[in-house]
Write the structure tokens for this entry.
Amino acid sequence: MQDSQSRPDAQLETWLRERHSCRAFLPRPVPRAVIERILELAQRTASWCNCQPWQVVVTEGEGTGRLREALLRRAAMPGFTPDIPFPREYRGASLARRRESGFQLYDAVGVARGDRAAYRRQELRNFALFDAPHTAIVTSDEALGEYGAIDCGGYVANFMLAAQANGVATVAQASLAMYPETLREVLGIGADRRVVCGISFGYADAAHPANRYRTRRAGLDEAVRWFAGQGEHVLERAGPGAV
Ligand SMILES: Cc1cc2nc3c(=O)[nH]c(=O)nc-3n(C[C@H](O)[C@H](O)[C@H](O)COP(=O)(O)O)c2cc1C
């Protein structure tokens, strides 16, 4: 067995393991050349028939400020209408993982269990873009349906990895897709586009409690089963356990 540093994918593993959702940013902007590099790398994402359905609006400077203000104003009002329906239900392992990561965040920032006003204050941090100097709003061609959104998911993952490789912290935000009409109005996004999510990014405030915990991943035994063709129910479980 090779040790992790001598593996050919060692650098990729480092970026994958070190990336985490950043929920407190320093005000320092990311230089345009660095943002362009991240965008160029993310353009390499594979897509259905190479349609490349993603389009991105990147905010900077006063643009980020204007979007933040508009989102906070909208979030103060009731209701939301995402272009892509939000999950119908969290159940089983999804529910357990959602709860665990949620409580990790609340514990980190000192929100007590059951304190609904504090939950709401933390939720609103999404619309303040966690003070990030930039956000990227990712949209898909409406006509491409769910597969367009899947391609955009690949784009989001590659964007975040490319950012990590460039020392830039990110957080994907489906929460921003709650208010597509606000994004359309402020950013001039057409009616033929579906808002998939935002990615707020910048330099991490490493000292902030919100950035001091890391989420877990299930082991292969929970996500993968092998089928070697010997019969319907012959399963050889993959190892190792949770990481
Ligand atoms: C498509 C997508 C949407 C997300 N939306 C939000 C969001 O609105 N707000 C938020 O704080 N985190 C959001 N996240 C971050 C997830 O909560 C996070 O990726 C997950 O808990 C795993 O933690 P990690 O990113 O630190 O590894 C989103 C992640 C993805 C991939």
In short: The longest helix spans residues 145-165. The pocket of flavin mononucleotide is lined by residues 20-21, 23, 101, 126, 171-175, 197, 215 (CB under 6 Å). The CA atoms of residues 34 and 166 lie 7 Å apart. The longest strand covers residues 193-202.
